[in-house]
Amino acid sequence: EPGGFVSAPIYASVSGTVKKIGEMLGSNGRMMQTVEIESDGLDARWEGIAPPKLETMQDFLDAVRASGLVGLGGAGFPTVVKLTVKNLDQIKCVIINGAECEPYITGDHRTMLERPEQIIGGATYLAKMFGVDKVVIGVEDNKQNGIDSLNACIKEKNAPVVVESLHCRYPQGGEKQLCQAITGKQVPPGGLPSNIGCAVFNINTTCAIFRAITTGIPVVKKIVTVSGSGVVEPKNIEC
Question: What's the alpha-carbon Rg for the chain, to the nearest Å?
């Protein structure tokens, strides 16, 4: 269970037996509390998983909170906090970040090609949540096939989403830089995108919102790019 507002529940990514509760070194270099599970190899799903009933906006927030969703672009910030701004009316522009944050990373690009319906579906939910006419997906212009894939899905579903092609330059994937590229406004020093009326979500975060709403499945996996000049077989792995 989460320990506070800026926290998220954690779910087991395998079915099996809890063998140990202790601490281990995390990827951020800090010790963290962990639950060690021995997989039974069955990958059995808990029978209580089901699509949430969405009758109010609070139901939507509760479903995202319960899914354990944090920003999948790397920041790891609980997504429900972004959705719980004091005044939703202050958000005039919802942006989906399709500009990879580092040159070697291609996980978001592959998602545009393989799961465009989840991206557009999640973006449509966000448009309804924030009450905006359209959601803008910012994609760098070196991913033209990704742009084409998204546009085809938008046309098919008649979705309230537009794709904006951006110059391919580092650090275009930075949240503040992306806001400026799309809106022309600068996030003030020490400020947040909400200060200029923006809310920004990563491509795979948007997919996870769609999955949580339509299936009830929480966040138990992530797409990771294994790449670079020292890697013999670069690839994207869903782990």
Answer: 18
